Amino acid sequence: MNTNRRKQVNPVHLSSLLRWLLVALFMGASGLFFVYMKNQQFALAEEIRQVERRISNVRSQNETLLARVTELSSRRALQQRIAEGFISMKPIQDNVIARLTPPAQAAQDGVLRTAFNERSRQ
Predict the structure, then answer these.
(1) Which pLDDT tens digits describe the chain residue by residue (122 residues)?
(2) In a domain, 113, yes or no
């Protein structure tokens, strides 16, 4: 009777077991890699969102500053600053102007014609 029991024992196929263990290991590693990649994707997406928020904030600040510069450099604002005495304006003296050509002289009738040639009119 002892011999019959030995015949009914199922043998373990080592190659089949090893193959299924490798398949399970590969599937587990693939799953872990997928989860790692998804976490990386989420982290990078959050970083991109933060950078886009910073860019939009900087753009809005630039627009605000550009409006302020436009306001402060307007003719009305400059005249107000002159009236307050914050800005002092002095006329430019003729001796400090650097000219590339000699100064134009007015004609005998007292009119300075720099862009008009009377000879071409005839």
Answers:
(1) 555 555 666 777 888 899 999 999 999 999 999 999 999 999 999 999 999 999 999 999 999 999 999 999 899 998 898 888 888 888 888 888 887 776 666 667 766 655 555 555 55
(2) no
Residue 108 forms part of a structural domain: no
DSSP line for 49-111: HHHHHHHHHHHHHHHHHHHHHHHHTSHHHHHHHHHHTSS---PPPGGG---SSPPPPP-TTS-
Domain that holds residue 47: 13-87
Place of tokens 């872990």: 32
- When divided into structural domains, the chain yields a total of 1
> Is 93 inside any structural domain?
no
DSSP 27-44: HHHHHHHHHHHHHHHHHH
